[in-house]
TrEMBL record:
It holds the Pfam family Aldo_ket_red. One of its GO terms (cellular component) is cytosol. Residues 21-316 form the NADP-dependent oxidoreductase domain. PANTHER family: NAD(P)-LINKED OXIDOREDUCTASE SUPERFAMILY PROTEIN, NADH-SPECIFIC METHYLGLYOXAL REDUCTASE-RELATED. Keywords: Oxidoreductase. This is Aldo/keto reductase. It comes from Candidatus Ornithomonoglobus intestinigallinarum. The keyword Chloroplast does not apply. The keyword Oxidoreductase applies. It comes from the Bacteria. GO terms for molecular function: oxidoreductase activity.
Length: 346
């Protein structure tokens, strides 16, 4: 395994981050395809053996059971607390919280306290703003995050699912107020969805903000031959929402991933992740089988040529924003800070 510093922080992380959305009680949350605690533990243990030290979860994943599974496994299998980097995320305030007058600062502290209890930890290394809260002033969010950093409950903060202008606004405010700044961005980015390459990635590279893309394998679409399937492919309605509409325009890219995998004698997973790694990112790779994390770890050793990188990229065509970012587009329709799409090559 290879390692890198996460942005400007002093966190040393494996180039592969284990995404834990696939862990948790399948009867207690959004997804029906997640794996139970016994299987989760075996995957986490294998990841640690392979040198993975970066783990990403969220309080929203299967009602907190993903955090619980991860915390107990790390307690049993990780050599030392300071040898693993644990990230979790919080959601915006609920309607009920808003009606009861719960402030943004109070919500963040309560959310993190619940996550720490689930994880069985005194602190997390990275606390991530899961999606933009249009009902809470950004000052309240940044103040609340700064409070948990000052309290020693989070070492650093990150953000996910936002526009570049929102990230810039938040970090400029933090700079002005002396608050902790976002050191990483977790965005939707892979070979068949590259819209973040227009503005977010150039901005983060300029500001030395770490890129930790989620859905690096497009919900399994970049890791399986066209005739292959899986429980997740069959049951993940959210991934279907994100990818099915563009399946025809993406098919040529997926075929090229398959072609290069055969040429190198490796899996499609390794090719798709090697492309992301060559972009300087730390992909958050979801796993529901030991073979998944083993394939991801191998990708850290694979180098693609300049020709192969271009070959994988050249069929890409612009995509509509999907998932959370499509919702953000509607919510931010009247937000003067949202930038229009740029012209950069992606």
């Amino acid at each position: 395994m290879k390692y890198t510093k996460l942005g400007k922080s002093d966190l040393t992380v494996s180039r592969i981050c284990m995404g834990c959305m696939g862990f948790g009680d399948a009867a207690n949350g959004q997804h029906t395809w997640t794996v139970d605690e016994e299987r989760s533990r075996s995957i986490i243990k294998r990841g640690l053996e392979l040198g993975v030290n970066f783990f990403d979860t969220a309080i929203a994943y299967q009602s907190g059971t993903s955090e619980q599974y991860l915390g107990r496994a790390l307690w049993d299998f990780a050599p030392k607390r300071d040898e693993v980097v644990v990230a979790t995320k919080f959601l915006p305030r609920t309607t009920d919280e808003i009606e009861k007058g719960v402030t943004g600062q109070e919500h963040i502290e309560r959310s993190l306290n619940r996550s720490l209890a689930n994880l069985g930890l005194d602190y997390v290394d990275l606390y991530i703003y899961h999606m933009w809260d249009y009902n809470t002033p950004i000052h309240d969010v940044m103040d609340g995050l700064n409070n948990v950093v000052k309290a020693g409950k989070a070492r650093y903060i990150g953000i996910s699912n936002c526009f570049p202008a929102q990230l810039a606004e938040a970090n400029e405010l933090a700079e002005k107020e002396g608050f902790a700044k976002f050191i990483s961005v977790q965005s939707h980015y892979n070979l068949i969805f590259r819209e973040e390459g227009r503005e977010m990635i150039p901005y983060c590279q300029k500001e030395q903000i770490a890129l930790t893309p989620y859905s690096p394998l497009a919900g399994g679409r970049l890791s399986k031959h066209p005739d292959e399937t899986s429980k997740r492919l069959a049951e993940d309605s959210y991934a279907k929402l994100k990818y099915d509409a563009a399946a025809q325009q993406d098919s040529g890219i997926i075929r090229r991933v398959d072609e290069l995998a055969k040429a190198h004698g490796v899996s499609m997973t390794e090719i798709a992740l090697a492309w992301l790694l060559a972009k300087g990112t730390v992909p958050v790779v979801g796993t529901t089988k030991i073979s998944h994390i083993e394939g991801a770890a191998k990708a850290a050793e694979l180098r693609l040529s300049e020709y192969e990188m271009t070959y994988l990229e050249e069929l890409y065509t612009p995509h509509e924003l999907v998932g959370v970012m499509a919702q953000n587009t509607k919510a931010a329709a009247n937000d003067k800070h949202v930038w229009s799409a740029g012209k950069q090559e992606i």
